[in-house]
Design brief:
The protein has 237 residues and is α/β, with parallel strands linked by helices. The protein has eight helices and nine strands. It is globular and about 50 Å long.
């Protein structure tokens, strides 16, 4: 158990089509290790709004913090991670654009993901297709859990994917990446490319789907714990 780490704060940021409740297992795991964990609830209405929601939570932290993002949350922490409280970044099957790049640009040149289908309404907000949801998002979850995630999903304003980030925090701060090897939401080559470009320490998780932050909470928590210790050593150096 980690009780004497210099970095005690962790902020968790969910992605599109989800909310912060998916982090419950990671929350329980990390708080049991002595961390102070806070979960952001992204409105998913725009990149600006999600970054603002994350910044509000970062403002509440009382010292250095590990900032964690899943999926779309990776774009959010890339922008919000320039906050002075952020000591390290953990990307969990997450997007990682560079400054001036959009989220959508990350897909260019990589294989399509036919099992990850977004149905977009007339108002510009998208839900994941119900018939494809389990295969595309939660293939390694039980049927009941996948159904709950499907039926509780939060739509995202699709225009957010076309907004470039202003800053890329990973260029200045140490980064870690957890990659689900059976993720059907992103091409594997895309996930590896983004993580390698960041210079992130990569943990590959065999058999895990896009919902790795739920189904592999122990591995994700271990990576966050490692990030906290390693980032503390970087700060002390």
């Amino acid at each position: 158990m980690s009780t004497d780490q210099d970095i005690k704060n962790v902020v968790l940021v969910h992605g599109a089509f989800a909310d912060g409740s998916g982090w419950r297992g990671v929350y329980d795991n990390l708080t049991a290790r002595g961390y102070r964990v806070t979960i952001v609830q992204n409105p998913l209405t725009s990149l600006e709004d999600d970054v603002a929601a994350t910044t509000r939570v970062l403002n509440l932290q009382d010292g250095p913090t590990i900032l964690v993002g899943h999926s779309w949350g990776g774009t959010v922490i890339t922008e919000a991670g320039v906050h002075p409280n952020v000591a390290g970044l953990v990307y969990v099957s997450a997007l990682a654009p560079d400054a001036g790049e959009t989220t959508s640009q990350q897909y260019e040149g990589f294989a399509p993901t036919p099992d990850f289908v977004i149905d977009v309404g007339d108002d510009g907000f998208g839900f994941l297709n119900h018939e494809k949801f389990k295969l595309g998002f939660a293939a390694d979850a039980g049927d009941a859990d996948a159904a709950f995630l499907r039926d509780s999903q939060v739509p995202i304003n699709m225009s957010a994917f076309g907004v470039p980030v202003k800053d890329a925090a990973w260029r200045e701060k140490p980064s870690w990446a957890v990659i689900a090897e059976e993720d059907k939401s992103f091409d594997q080559a895309m996930l590896q490319h983004m993580a390698e470009r960041m210079g992130a320490e990569i943990t590959n998780v065999p058999g895990a789907s896009h919902d790795v932050f739920i189904t592999q909470q122990g591995i994700v928590s271990d990576v966050i714990d490692t990030a906290a210790h390693d980032a503390a050593r970087v700060r002390a150096a």
